[in-house]
Amino acid sequence: MARVYNFSAGPSMLPESVLRTAQAEMLEYGSSGQSVMEMSHRSSVYDAIIKETEAALRRVLCIPDNYKVGFIQGGASTQFAMVPMNLMTTGEADYLVTGQFSGKAAKEAEKFGRVNVPASSKDKNFTYIPDVDAVEYSKNASYIHICENNTIYGTRFTKLPHADGVPLVADLSSCILSRPTDVSQYGLIYFGVQKNVAPAGMAVAIIREDLMENARTDIARPAMLDYKTLIDAESMYNTPPCYTIYMMGLVLKWIETEVGGLANMEARNNAKAKLLYDYLDGSSFFSNPVNKPDRSIMNVTFTSPSPELDKKFCAEAAAAGFVNLKGHRSVGGMRASIYNAMPAEGVEKLVEFMKQFEADNA
Ligand code: PMP
After folding, report:
1. Ligand 1 center to 191 CA (angstroms)
2. CA 20 to 30 Å from 48, out of 248, 261, 293, 313?
3. Is the CB of 132 under 6 A from ligand 1?
4. Can 5-15+261-361 and 17-258 be said to share one CATH topology?
5. 172-222: per-residue pLDDT in tens?
6. What is the predicted pLDDT for the residue at 163?
7. How, if at all, do strands 168-171 and 188-192 pair?
8. Of 68, 355, 326, 11, which is closest to residue 187 (Cα–Cα)?
9. What's the 194 CA to ligand 1 centre distance in angstroms?
10. Domain boundaries, the chain
11. Looking at its record, which EC class is this enzyme (predicted)?
């Protein structure tokens, strides 16, 4: 077996020990005589799995009791619509546009009300995060929406926007569980699970109870797009993505028992990112375009001196076992996504490979 170092932006690597547990439990989960894939979601065995997965998420993120958790199909993109359909109670909201996904979220929200964009980093191709304290938020906004880590551009918010009494809604798809998060700072957090949490197939919403209870009443929402309907039914209004939830439980167990919680997770991630950024900063061949304080610790973008060399780099890296390093089609260059499950060794070896490529091609 030759497993590669997979730098994909998502779906992405899962911890090897998690995959091994899933493999060992594939044919029979516990003494149930069946695979989790085959189980009725209404069975007592499965009920224990979904309840423990939510409980583990609550422990790991220290989610306060006045927040509800929902496991919701349709990925993060469906959340782009659910957020305004449920929470845009005043008919308008503020969206900070710092990349493609926050742009898509804003565009989707326009279908359900007025979208204000009080700040954007489009002027510099999304290579920085606007100063959140200098932004003029709208008086009548129902919420302020951000994408906390910009997967494509490799930036992240290090400070959260705050306007008196206006809830913050944040897409944490590409940074959830990468470091401790103070959930009480948010009205709603959502994330697609396919980067740091599980195989693809679901998003998770963590919503402050009063926001869920006081959802907008001026539009009819399909039941499947109503937070209260889904969450009151304990994420079992319909058949949930059972296997993805089981895998999420295994990943959370890995964070709790093998990593030792999110403070350790953050230290690991900071060390991996530092290794790569330090090398990029010292290199006269590769470079990273992002404003330093806003650099993501999950997605590291870089370019070589030419598109031809970028292409050569990606091809030779793939042949050496470092795959999916090609940058997003909208920005070009390279991107190394170094999520939780990427071992430090993968980044160390990548840097060695980059040094050699620099020496051979400079
Ligand atoms: N938000 C962010 C920050 C993302 O990185 C992505 C996907 N890469 C999405 C939203 C869209 O997620 P999904 O494919 O689950 O709809």
Report:
1. 8
2. 261
3. no
4. no
5. 999 999 999 999 999 999 999 999 999 999 999 999 999 999 999 999 999
6. 80
7. parallel
8. 68
9. 9
10. 5-15+261-361, 17-258
11. transferase
